[in-house]
């Protein structure tokens, strides 16, 4: 699983990244094409396609990701807050099919949904 997956290659060190955090289950690295002054991704080391493929066995891992996100955001200087985004499936705009949480901030972050 994950032989041709870009994020698995980054996890294995076959593609370089600007690392933010690493532990036995999770890796965080800066996005190659940032949408804000700070934009990094938190990925599972295990190849999991998307949130749609997650089940109860992934609950602790997903919980760890969400608990780690604010800690890493602060370390990256995001003391005022940040946006987390998880794109799921083609319909959710996902482009890399290896579960990841975007952590974005440091600039003007507009409301995500415009209602006017
Ligand atoms: P998605 O649209 O799947 O939620 O987000 C995929 C993200 O991965 C995009 O923001 C894109 O810029 C980023 N990305 C794609 N390839 C690479 C890469 O090789 N290295 C890094 N650091 N980011 C990547
Ligand atoms: Zn993968």
Spatial order of strands in the largest sheet: 1-2-3-5-4
CATH topology: HIT family, subunit A
**What is the 3D form?**
globular
Q: Work out the helix count.
A: 2
Total beta strand runs:
5
Strand content range: 15-25%
Task: Provide the CATH superfamily.
Answer: HIT-like
Bin the helical content: 10-25%
How many domain modules? 1
Classification by helices and strands: alpha+beta
> In CATH, what is the class?
Alpha Beta
The unreliable regions are none
Key words describing this protein structure:
HIT family, subunit A, alpha+beta, 116 residues, 22% strand
Task: Describe the fold and architecture.
The chain is α+β, with helices and mostly antiparallel strands and 116 residues long. The protein has one domain (6-105): HIT family, subunit A. 20% of the residues lie in helices and 22% in strands. It has two helices and five strands. A five-stranded antiparallel sheet has the order 1-2-3-5-4, covered by helices on one side. Strand 2 (26-30) and strand 3 (38-44) form a beta hairpin. The radius of gyration is 14 Å and the shape is globular. The chain starts with 5 loop residues before the first helix and ends in an 11-residue tail after the last strand. The site of zinc ion (ZN) has 6 residues, from helix 1.
